[in-house]
Amino acid sequence: MGVLVLMNETKILSSLNYTKMKPNQEIKLEVKPNIDHLEYYSTLVIDNPDGLKLQMSSNTNKTIWRNKTDDEFYDIINKKKITLVDKNGEIIELEEDIPDNYPVDFYQNKLVTWFKEEKTYGVTNNKYYSITIKNISNRSGKVSASVYNY
């Protein structure tokens, strides 16, 4: 004898830490760095298996976003990608325009990105602040986003 269990998709997603995001829906996350420690850092981890186009912003007017997964920085003011390059033992910043078909863009001083995997961003600051992630795709999909403070 078999048992058939039907569950609501929202309940399944929440048990896996995913949110079903509709177009223009936002997720707000709090960054609460452990500033009482000598060394501290915060990371934002986003899993976007449906490849939604996500717009990221903060209430601190964050101008540089660090993509730790791909070891890149995104300057949203100058609309550039920055990579650190070792040149004869010296680390230098290499600024580049964002290439066509690259999964990063900028809109009104906000980072826009789309990918179908997990990405980690460095979001360390010396004060509490919030990050908003908005689905700017014209479709719904699942996203998991968490901030970890160490």
What does this structure look like?
The protein is globular. The chain has one domain (18-149). An eight-stranded antiparallel beta sheet has the order 1-13-3-11-5-6-7-8. It has a five-stranded antiparallel beta sheet with strand order 2-12-4-10-9, with no helix packed on it. Helix content is 5%, strand content 50%. The protein is mainly beta and 150 residues long.
Describe the SSE topology.
Blueprint (H helix, E strand, L loop, with lengths): L8 H7 L3 E3 L4 E6 L10 E6 L5 E6 L5 E4 L4 E4 L4 E8 L2 E8 L6 E4 L2 E5 L3 E5 L6 E7 L5 E9 L1
Antiparallel strand pairs: 1-13, 2-12, 3-11, 3-13, 4-10, 4-12, 5-6, 5-11, 6-7, 7-8, 9-10
